[in-house]
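Q: Here's a chain of 179 amino acids. Please give me its 3D structure as tokens.
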Amino acid sequence: MKRISGKNLVLIGFMGTGKTEVGRLLARLLSRRFVDTDQVIAQREKKAIAAIFQDQGEKYFRQLEKAFAEELREEQNLVIATGGGFVLDEDNAAALRKFGFVVWLTADISVLRERLKNDDSRPLLKNELDFEALYHARQPIYRRASHVQVDTAGKTPQAVAEEIFCILEQNSTTERENG
């Protein structure tokens, strides 16, 4: 997998696309360490992401993400699952693309609504209009930040992880043939 040799494999996408679950599985498949940016930030702050948003606000949370993105520049061979808004900051997105291979996990908005219908832990999941507006606003940002896109609708996390693994293998084979 020459294309990502030494680089981080980064999963981006909207909430509910499966970044954390798929990331854990990919880390096992690739024998790499797994990092979930939201989990690390929550551990460091000693509170849930929703509580950070409520107590300090979204701007503070985005500053924490930016600081963590700087740390990740120094890391190699990780599988990283980012929070849904991690790539909203252009510097974060550019760093992830430069030092990693970025996979955008997607799913249709109706699929995401179904997956998230009982999830009250997401601070930006306030109401239907906010959800839809946020979804549509982020699509072009994810597109610009990613190297490839993988649809997760109707697939198990294991199937998505295996699909990404195959993409990495195909890219590696193509590079060897063209190299």
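Q: Can you summarize the key feature?
A: The first strand starts at residue 8 and ends at 13.
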